[in-house]
Specification:
Helices cover about 65% and strands about 5% of the residues. The protein is mostly helical. The chain has a four-stranded mixed beta sheet. A three-stranded mixed beta sheet has the order 5-6-7.
Length: about 600
């Protein structure tokens, strides 16, 4: 008894040392991913300015000021030519002939075991850099988030890491990219958990924090400690302002909802039209150029215009005009296939909405207002929270940019209300809408997601009994008695599945000795049985078993050749699902660190 106890303690000690070593390895890998994502963010931002300098002769953020000195044909030709180049590139070199972004990161984390293509991440970033540099009215954060996540997925793939560790490294790439974009490490950590991973796992929290800090350090070494926006100081004048902040949050939710719906309308109109996919970004660029003749602020990312709004440089009429102009071109650019993200556009729309609302509120209650610059900042956070489905992350971004606790509380209130409006009337964020268009949803819950992630090829058995199509009944009787699960699979000379035979199918004929070789396996088999294919999910297998009452189903290589390669038993499907669910629950509770291999 004592010997067994000693051995048990030794084993437990070894397991603890192994867990600590795995945590150390994962932390080192997190730093590597953070460095890759941070460096990629720098290259991406400089790439945008390089393209912008080539197209417009200006390599600084405040592009709209430089645009005022360019000719009309230059303003129109720049985004149109850029759109044509981007459209051809996307059509020729990107999967599904579209630029990839944050929704694809969520898709990979939720449905594909954190598997992503690094080449696709780099190509999408390249297309986005050309798009934004040539004037597309979209954002730069979405592409770098996708690129950072693809770096984490790449490292997990070459090291053959398990799903939980791969998801953690994917989250590390996301956190580093967000932190590097805004110089906001806290926001990077929570965005990775809130949006990309969809949960707050204690075991992945430390690596993601380390990656986010690494991304911040790298960009601060390159750019300095300046934040993304030049924020003037604000002070809440009265707590009576909070009803106004709440009303702004409701308006921000409506604005976010209408913007996403406008993108859907543009996509539907484009799909019904005859314009080829590769030409659509050029059409979007042409529209951006025309709108930009009156509102040059809509060109590119728009950080310069947002800073102007924060410093109260625009009138009420101009803010309203710019709000509608930006919403229009964002819907056009995103709906027609320009490459870019939605983070910056949502901040821009929020800035214009908040600024206009702030001017009105200040005019009505001048003694209670903190100035419309404060409302501009609150509007930025509220619209971004609703569009991205990330109220916690956007609130933290504002807090890290301002360091103002009271103003952050106002942002939190407005962001939550805007997100409620978006959830209730639009069914979720922009990314959830994108996934829904692809027939996916993160709202199904982790159980359905697990069933969809696992494939029948991973759990199927290859030990099964087949019988040739022409074999007589005596041979069928003999094989059926010894067959696993009392079922035979009838195949032709090429191995193509013809049908199945069970004791139930044969009934009395199975042991009727008066029936001889004149009755063949093909004649008594149940033809066209329900089947699965190797790429089908376990969810489909379980659903098909429920519909047909079958306990096990044959698995075919493909629909054309119908070569049988195995079969799936109901208990094996449920066991695999149960084990994966237990592993996920353990990961989220933090009972054990993510297993690397």
């Amino acid at each position: 008894m004592a010997e067994k106890l000693i051995k048990s303690n030794i084993l437990l000690s070894r397991m603890r040392r192994l867990a600590k070593s795995e945590q150390l390895v994962l932390s080192i890998l997190a730093l590597v991913v953070g460095a890759l994502a941070g460096g990629g963010t720098i290259l991406f931002r400089d790439g945008i300015l390089l393209v912008q300098s080539f197209v417009y002769g200006w390599g600084e953020e405040s592009l709209h000021e430089h645009m005022k000195g360019l000719s009309n044909w230059h303003l129109i030709l720049g985004p149109t030519a850029g759109g044509l180049l981007v459209g051809i590139f996307i059509y020729k070199f990107l999967p599904e002939r579209r630029a990839h972004g944050v929704a694809d990161v969520i898709d990979a984390a939720s449905f594909h075991d954190a598997r992503m293509s690094t080449r696709c991440g780099i190509k999408s970033a390249l297309a986005s850099a050309v798009s934004l540099g040539s004037g597309a009215s979209l954002g730069r954060e979405g592409p770098v988030v996708h690129m950072g996540a693809s770096f984490g997925a790449w490292l997990a793939r070459i090291l053959h890491l398990r799903r939980s560790a791969a998801r953690t490294l994917l989250g590390c790439g996301v956190a580093s990219a967000v932190a590097a974009s805004f110089n906001a490490p806290l926001a990077g950590v929570f965005f990775a958990h809130e949006v990309a991973l969809g949960h707050y796992a204690r075991t992945s929290f430390a690596p993601i924090v380390m990656s986010s800090v690494m991304g911040t350090v790298i960009t601060r070494l390159y750019y300095g400690s300046d934040v993304a926006f030049l924020i003037p100081s604000h002070e809440i004048q009265s707590f009576w302002e909070f009803p106004a902040f709440a009303l702004l949050g409701l308006l921000a939710g409506v604005a976010a909802m209408l913007t996403v719906r406008a993108i859907a309308v543009v996509q539907k109109v484009a799909d019904r039209g005859r314009a080829p996919l590769w030409l659509r970004p050029a059409i979007a660029g042409l529209i951006v150029g025309v709108v930009g003749l009156g509102f040059p602020q809509v060109f590119g990312v728009g950080y310069g215009a947002m800073n102007d709004a924060l410093y109260e440089a625009y009138s009420l009429a101009f803010l309203i005009g710019l709000l509608f102009a930006k919403a229009f071109v964002v819907a056009i650019c995103m709906g027609l296939g320009f490459a870019g993200g939605m983070f910056s556009p949502s901040l821009f729309l929020g800035a214009m909405l908040g600024g206009a609302f702030g001017i009105f509120a200040t005019h009505v209650f001048p003694d209670l207002s903190s100035g419309h610059g404060a409302y501009t900042l609150v509007g930025m956070g509220a619209v971004a929270a609703a569009v991205l489905g990330a109220p916690i992350s956007t609130t933290l971004i504002i807090f890290e940019l301002t360091g103002d606790y009271e103003l952050t509380v106002a942002v939190m209130l407005a962001s939550v209300l805007a997100s409620v409006i978006m959830d209730q009337f639009n069914g979720g964020s922009f990314f959830q809408w994108q996934l829904k268009c692809r027939g996916l949803s993160t709202r199904w819950g982790r159980e359905v997601n697990l069933l969809r992630m696992m494939k029948v090829a991973d759990i199927m058995k290859r030990e099964y009994e087949t019988v040739p199509l022409t074999d007589g009944l005596p041979a069928v009787r003999e094989k059926l008695i010894n067959a696993p699960y009392s079922e035979l699979f009838v195949v032709d000379e090429n191995g193509k599945l013809h049908g199945t035979i069970t004791l139930t199918d044969l009934r009395h004929a199975a042991f009727d000795l008066n029936l001889g070789d004149e009755v063949t396996a093909g004649q008594v088999a149940r033809s066209k049985p329900p089947v699965l294919y190797r790429t089908d999910s376990i969810e489909k297998a379980v659903r098909l078993m429920e519909e047909t009452g079958e306990e096990h189903l044959p698995v075919l290589d493909n629909d054309q050749e119908r070569q049988m390669i195995g079969f799936v038993h109901e208990k094996d499907a449920m066991m695999a699902y149960n084990n994966a669910l237990l592993e996920l629950q353990s990961e989220e509770r933090g009972d054990a660190p993510p297993k690397l291999f």
